[in-house]
Design brief:
The chain is an alpha/beta fold. It has 9 helices and 8 strands. The protein has one domain: 3-Layer(aba) Sandwich (Uracil-DNA Glycosylase, subunit E). It starts with 12 loop residues before the first helix and ends in a 6-residue tail after the last helix. It binds iron/sulfur cluster.
Length: 290
Amino acid sequence: MTTRPPLRPLPPPGDLRAELARLVHATRRLVAAEREGGVVTLPGTPRPPEPPAAPAATPHAPHAATPAAPPPATPPTTPRGTQRAGPADSFVPHVRPLDLPDDWRAPFGDLPQRITACRRCALGEKRTCTVFGEGSAPAELVFCGEAPGYEEDRTGRPFVGAAGELLTAMIERGMKMRREDVFILNTLKCRPPRNRAPLPIEVGACRPHLEEQLAVIRPKVIVALGNHAVRALLGESPGITRMRGRVIDALGAKVVPTYHPAYLLRNAAAKRDSWEDLKTVLRLLGRAPA
Ligand code: SF4
């Protein structure tokens, strides 16, 4: 017969409420991180009703007005037994609309239109929206992620889910800058299916778009968010834990690799290193870290 260890005594009611609050907070962060990966139901939960046939969500930004091929009626099931979001799922961005002038894309000429029409790689056939990026141009600081995720593909904006909320807090609360003052983009402009890692052929196909964007933005510093972004920007990477903490001259700027905000949502202990990287960025920009 198995002997169970004695139960710990319950904490006093006040502590219990604090513990419950911590659990709720941790659960919300976990769900947000899963949602970031495109997961909307957990294994074993009832399948949501099939959405009615509906056109793809209206792009949030004019540059992202490319309609995609009609999505499948039944969302695909992932290898983990979870289910991906269907086309009619509503999503309210975690990140407020930016306070930018109407013509903020003007410095890029016809590049936004060319990206919207791009079919250089197979990702162009599956996307809902292209995600050009957003921010000021020129800007001294660029944040570069790997590729749009579920929320970005639906809204046409970069980093608008839970990871985007954290990135915004890093910029605004940590670095004391406005999200409008920097430029945020991805190495790919279209979402890879099931948020898989970008393929080298896709990175190569999209690279000219990225280089054109950087030529217009002319950043002093590019923060590469996560290993895939580092590899796409620098051509190779032995891993983000070995790359972070370095400053690399590339693409006419200082490239500072750091963790992707989605990773930080799952690994809070890494936030300390991430903040050290952002302090390096502030020093490179001639701004004193707070
Ligand atoms: S990922 Fe880039 S290269 Fe591929 S279709 Fe989209 S915009 Fe074009």
